[in-house]
Design goal:
GO cellular component, one term: periplasmic space
CATH architecture of the largest domain: 3-Layer(aba) Sandwich
Subcellular location: Periplasm
Organism: Kaistia nematophila
Distance between the termini: 48 Å
Number of strands: 14
Structural class: alpha/beta
Keywords: Periplasm, Signal
Helix content: 40-55%
Protein name: Sugar ABC transporter substrate-binding protein
CATH class of the largest domain: Alpha Beta
Shape: globular
């Protein structure tokens, strides 16, 4: 028997023992999320299933818009009625851990995470080697394109290089039809920065290296130049790329309606495309990020979400919260060997991150749309999780948008973005 099955056997025994502990009094655990109503309903159903075998514990679900998630956690964590469990973007973890707003995972939960999740994903749920939560979804980026528009423009295959990408964007542009070749996103930090970072990674660069920003590197300057070139040529139209707080808006509508030929987006938006396009969703295909002149191959940016427990909750609440998360993310809580969290994520078309969930959903992940994302996962580059990461992201967003709307040249944006990033990260580390 290999070490991994032995560890799994030990871990299963340990988690079962942890779950069997009785509570001296009734405990209510509040679960804060940004998920939409249909997903909240699935989470509530899972909580009800857990409650049947865990008398004395009640899990109440609360949802707020994504834009309010971090501020709600910061302002209410540890207070009466505040969240016990919160689903967070992993970029926020370093600061939440520094400010002692999140509870370090107990040993059994920590071992569960480091044993049953890929190393990179488990690392993103950790600070200084300490695990702070359960990873759930993992998201990567790919080039999405409309096959029908490609055919009309005489383009036979997805672009593999930046030169092919720019040429395709020009061919797909039809001003008379209000059609842009490549859709950029604005008014949403992740939607602006992650596609840019994916192109940068595919040009051999990175946003941050060893804690130091690299936004004025030759690789990054070339990425800003590419954006400026697309805008100036009319192949990208900034006003067509607006997002709202719920990650919908013109950027989505224009792709759904066939007004955008290509866009770089994450796997989670599959459900939105299906809902908006119906049978026309069959026209959508995915491909790796085009490779820049300095790149060694296509690379996507990856990021993940995780569930954490408030450090300010009572001991009883924390114990109940970690027990629920162990069950919720465990391979026996869902169907066919998947976790209940995996079932929930798959209902949204999101890639689960637990190794056994990926195996359980292997057939579902072979769909033409999702297969393209699974293929790029191994070469993905994790978005840097550093102190000051959110402010860094929002600052870079501002400079990318300035290029989109003609307020800064590519050279100006690269220089200003680097200066701002240096100041932000230095201040955050003090």
């Amino acid at each position: 028997m290999t070490i991994r099955p032995l560890m799994g056997l030990f871990l299963g025994t340990a988690m079962a023992a942890f779950s069997s502990v009785a509570w001296a009094e009734d405990v209510t655990v509040s679960f804060l999320t940004h998920w939409p109503p249909e997903t909240v309903a699935k989470l509530e159903a899972a909580a009800a299933t857990y409650a049947k075998d865990h008398p004395g514990v009640k899990v109440e679900v609360r949802a707020v818009p994504f834009g309010d998630l971090l501020t709600t956690l910061r302002s209410q964590a540890g207070q009466a009625g505040g969240p016990t469990i919160t689903g967070i973007y992993d970029l926020w973890l370093p600061e939440l851990a520094r400010d002692k707003l999140v509870n370090a995972a107990p040993e059994a939960n920590s071992t569960d995470v480091t044993t049953n999740w890929p190393k990179g994903v488990a690392t993103a749920a950790s600070v200084g080697g300490t695990v702070y939560g359960y990873p759930n979804e993992i998201d990567v980026y790919a080039l999405n394109y409309n096959k029908k528009l490609f055919e009309e423009a005489g383009i036979k295959e997805a672009p593999k290089t930046w030169d092919e990408f720019y040429a395709a964007a020009e061919k797909l542009t039809n001003k008379d039809k209000g059609q842009q070749g490549f859709g950029m996103i604005n008014s949403w930090a992740a939607g602006v920065v992650h596609p840019f970072a994916s192109l940068l990674a595919s040009n051999g660069g990175a946003l941050v290296v060893d804690g130091k920003p690299q936004l004025d590197s030759d690789n990054a300057k070339a990425t800003f130049d590419l954006y400026e070139k697309l805008i100036k040529s009319g192949a990208s139209v900034a006003t067509m790329g607006t997002a709202d707080a719920n990650t919908t808006g013109p950027f989505l509508d224009n792709f759904v309606s066939g007004k955008t030929g290509m866009i770089i987006m994450a796997n989670w938006w599959e459900s939105a495309l299906k809902a908006g396009m119906g049978d026309r969703f069959a026209d959508i295909a995915t491909a790796p990020i085009p490779v820049g002149p300095k790149g060694d191959g296509p690379h996507s940016i990856s990021y993940s979400w995780m569930t954490v427990v408030s450090d300010g909750a009572s001991d009883a609440e924390k114990k109940a919260a970690w027990d629920f998360l162990a069950w919720f993310n465990g391979p026996t809580s869902g169907e066919n060997g998947a976790s209940a969290m995996g079932d929930l994520l798959q209902s949204m078309g999101i890639l689960p991150s637990r190794t056994s969930d990926v195996a359980a959903f292997a057939e579902r992940l072979k769909t033409p749309f999702l297969a393209g994302y699974v293929d790029v996962l191994s070469e993905a580059r994790p978005f840097p999780t550093v102190l000051g990461g959110q402010e860094f992201t929002e600052s870079l967003q501002g400079h990318i948008e300035a290029v989109q709307f003609g307020k800064e040249t590519a050279a100006e944006a690269a220089a200003a973005a680097q200066a701002d990033a240096v100041a932000i990260l230095e201040k955050a580390s003090q």
